[in-house]
Automatic annotation (TrEMBL):
This is bis(5'-nucleosyl)-tetraphosphatase (symmetrical). Its EC number is 3.6.1.41. InterPro entries: Ap4A_hydrolase, ApaH, Calcineurin-like_PHP, Metallo-depent_PP-like. Belongs to the Ap4A hydrolase family. Residues 4-149 form the Calcineurin-like phosphoesterase domain. GO terms for biological process: RNA decapping. SUPFAM superfamilies: Metallo-dependent phosphatases (SSF56300). It is an enzyme of class 3 (hydrolase).
């Protein structure tokens, strides 16, 4: 049995199938981890969702910001200029695919491998246990009757810069932003939601995984996507960044995850 992880697919179905063929992926014995942003901007979001859904338990997919945006559109929210999601929304099996998507996690952890997967990142102050609790509260919301109201709040929302106190209505929104959107933050937990490419102008900002004191680091290594501008992150002892910008004309990258936080890049496809 092999556990593979792939970065942001974003509807690049052809490249995904090429990668899996290269490594001889067998859903009977192998598992594919997908680090979110399964859909949007690429040409084949519908094929991608149908394929991943067909893999059953052999595909472990966490939600990314583009996946949440699809849920938002179905819930009646607004679109963006570069969206390529009409094929999903107009598909005869749209309701089934949306139901499947709503039941994907925001965080996945394998204690035997010592690997955790999220789309964007984690708060430096969160232990793995705390991160799981934050993710689970969002998952319960998405799987419940109020999921549409929650998803509509994500459009053009000004997310809190710091984690709100327990009981604050914005606490789930903040956790969602951390798990699906974070790039930069300060060591004391102030998040920069504005810088999407290039370096932050705030000298206190660091990539979320680059601070000296990180609570979750003793619990797991983290595989993530989301940050195409940074590309593959292979030089950190406790994270593996796999968004290599396939939807922007670069490559889709597949890694094999090994126990104790070890990994190997095994295939790439343009």
């Amino acid at each position: 049995m092999a556990t593979y992880a792939v970065g942001d697919i974003q509807g690049c179905y052809k490249q995904l199938r090429v990668l899996l063929k290269k490594v001889g992926f067998d859903p009977v014995k192998d598992v594919l981890w997908c680090a979110g942003d399964l859909v949007n901007r690429g040409p084949d979001s519908l094929k991608t969702l149908r394929f991943l859904k067909s893999l059953g338990d052999s595909a472990v997919c966490v939600l990314g910001n583009h996946d949440l945006h699809l849920l938002e559109l179905v819930a009646g929210g607004g679109s963006y200029r570069r969206d390529t999601l009409d094929q999903v929304i107009n598909a005869p099996d749209c309701a089934e695919l949306i139901d499947w998507l709503r039941h994907r996690p925001l965080l996945h952890h394998d204690s035997e491998l010592h690997w955790c997967m999220v789309h964007a990142g984690l708060h430096p102050d969160w232990t793995l246990k705390k991160a799981k609790k934050r993710a689970r509260k969002i998952e319960v919301m998405l799987q419940g009757d109020e999921w549409q109201d929650f998803c509509r709040q994500l459009h053009h929302r000004q997310f809190p810069r710091r984690e709100p106190k327990k009981g604050c209505p914005d606490r789930r929104l903040f956790s969602t932003a951390v798990l699906t959107r974070v790039r930069y933050c300060t060591s004391d937990g102030r998040f920069n939601w504005d810088t999407r490419s290039g370096e932050s102008r705030d000298t206190r900002d660091r990539p979320w995984f680059a601070h000296k004191r990180i609570a979750w680091k003793r619990d797991c290594s983290v595989v993530y996507g989301h940050w195409a501008a940074m590309g593959l992150v292979k030089d950190q002892p406790h994270v593996l960044g796999l968004d290599s910008g396939c939807v922007w004309g670069e490559e889709l990258t597949l890694a094999r995850l090994k126990p104790r936080g070890k990994w190997a890049i095994v295939a790439q496809a343009e």
